[in-house]
C-alpha cells in the first residue's frame, strides 16, 4: 500500500454540518493543517443539497420537504439537486498538484472514481464507468440521478453513484452520493414539476435510470457494511492507506459555527465566492 491519507468517519449529521465540514476540509488542506483526506458520512435528518448555481425556488417543493422533515442546504459544488437519505456520502480533498491528480477535471474524476468502482466490487456489484452520449437532452430535470456524468458509476446501465467536483485555492474537493436504498415516491414528491402527469412520467422513467446498492444486490446492506466496503475500495482504487483523523473539539466548534452562520441559510451568496 502506498501513501497514507487521512480518513474522517463523521457519522450521521445535519445537512448544514455536513456541508460546513466539507468546506473546512478544503480550507484546512489549503493551510497545510491536514493532508489528502477522505471522509464518509450520513445525513440526519435527510437533506436535499442544491447545486451552487441552482435556483431552489424553481426546483424544490418546499411544502413537501417540510412535510417529510427534509432539510435543504446549498453546497459549494455545481450540478443538480440530490436527496440524501438512505445513503453513504463520501468527500475527498486533495491538492491539484498531487502527483496522482491529472490537471483535467474529467480525468481527476476518473482517478477518484476508481475508489468507488472498487467499493462496489467489494459488495459483489459489477459496476462500470459512465461515458455519456454527446446528444443534447430535450428536457432538463432538477434531479441529479436522472442523468450520468463522465466516470460516474453505472450498474446494469443505471446510475449507482453521483459526484460533483470543485477546485479552489489550488485544492480539489469531490463529494458524492452512494444510495443504499432509493424511495422514488419520496424523491419525486420533493421536486417541483409543471403538472402531476409530468411528475408521474418522470417517476416511472426513473426506475430505468438509477439503482441503489440493495436493489443491485437483492440484499439489505446497512450503512456500516457499505462504509467498510468503500473504505477498502478507496484504498485499493487509489493505492493508499487510510489513517483515522479525529476531529478536535476546536474543529467541531468551527464546523458548527460555519453550519450556523452559512449553511443554515439556503440563500448564501455564491457570487462573491472565489
TrEMBL record:
Keyword Nuclease: no
Start and end residues of each BPL/LPL catalytic domain: 32-242
GO molecular function: catalytic activity, acting on a protein; transferase activity
Keywords from the named record: Transferase
GO BP, one annotated term: protein lipoylation
Listed InterPro entries: aa-tRNA-synth_II/BPL/LPL, BPL_LPL_catalytic, Octanoyltrans_LipM/LipL
Pfam families: LplA-B_cat
Protein name: Octanoyltransferase
Classification via SUPFAM superfamilies: Class II aaRS and biotin synthetases
PANTHER family according to UniProt: OCTANOYL-[GCVH]:PROTEIN N-OCTANOYLTRANSFERASE, OCTANOYLTRANSFERASE LIPM-RELATED
Amino acid at each position: 500500500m502506498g501513501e497514507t491519507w487521512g480518513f474522517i468517519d463523521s457519522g450521521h449529521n445535519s445537512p448544514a454540518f455536513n456541508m460546513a465540514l466539507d468546506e473546512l476540509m478544503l480550507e484546512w488542506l489549503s493551510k497545510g493543517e491536514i493532508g489528502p483526506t477522505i471522509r464518509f458520512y450520513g445525513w440526519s435528518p435527510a437533506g436535499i443539497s442544491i447545486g451552487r448555481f441552482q435556483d431552489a425556488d424553481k426546483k424544490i417543493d418546499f411544502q413537501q420537504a417540510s412535510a417529510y422533515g427534509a432539510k435543504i442546504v446549498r453546497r459549494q459544488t455545481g450540478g443538480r439537486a440530490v436527496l440524501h437519505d438512505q445513503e453513504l456520502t463520501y468527500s475527498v480533498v486533495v491538492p491539484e498538484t498531487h502527483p496522482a491528480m491529472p490537471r483535467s477535471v474529467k480525468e481527476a474524476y476518473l482517478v477518484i472514481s476508481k475508489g468507488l468502482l472498487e467499493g462496489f466490487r467489494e459488495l459483489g456489484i459489477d459496476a462500470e464507468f459512465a461515458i455519456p452520449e454527446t446528444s443534447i437532452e430535450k428536457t432538463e430535470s432538477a434531479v441529479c440521478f436522472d442523468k450520468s456524468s463522465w466516470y460516474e458509476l453505472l450498474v446494469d446501465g443505471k446510475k449507482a453513484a453521483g459526484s460533483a467536483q470543485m477546485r479552489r485555492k489550488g485544492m480539489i474537493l469531490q463529494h458524492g452520493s452512494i444510495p443504499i436504498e432509493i424511495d422514488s415516491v419520496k424523491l419525486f414528491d420533493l421536486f417541483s414539476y409543471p403538472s402531476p402527469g409530468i411528475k408521474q412520467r418522470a417517476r416511472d422513467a426513473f426506475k430505468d435510470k438509477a439503482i441503489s446498492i440493495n436493489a443491485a444486490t437483492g440484499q439489505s446492506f446497512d450503512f456500516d457494511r457499505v462504509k467498510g466496503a468503500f473504505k477498502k475500495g478507496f484504498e485499493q482504487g487509489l493505492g493508499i492507506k487510510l489513517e483515522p483523523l479525529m476531529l478536535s473539539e476546536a474543529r467541531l466548534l468551527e464546523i458548527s459555527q460555519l453550519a450556523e452562520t452559512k449553511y443554515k441559510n439556503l440563500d448564501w451568496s455564491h457570487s462573491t465566492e472565489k
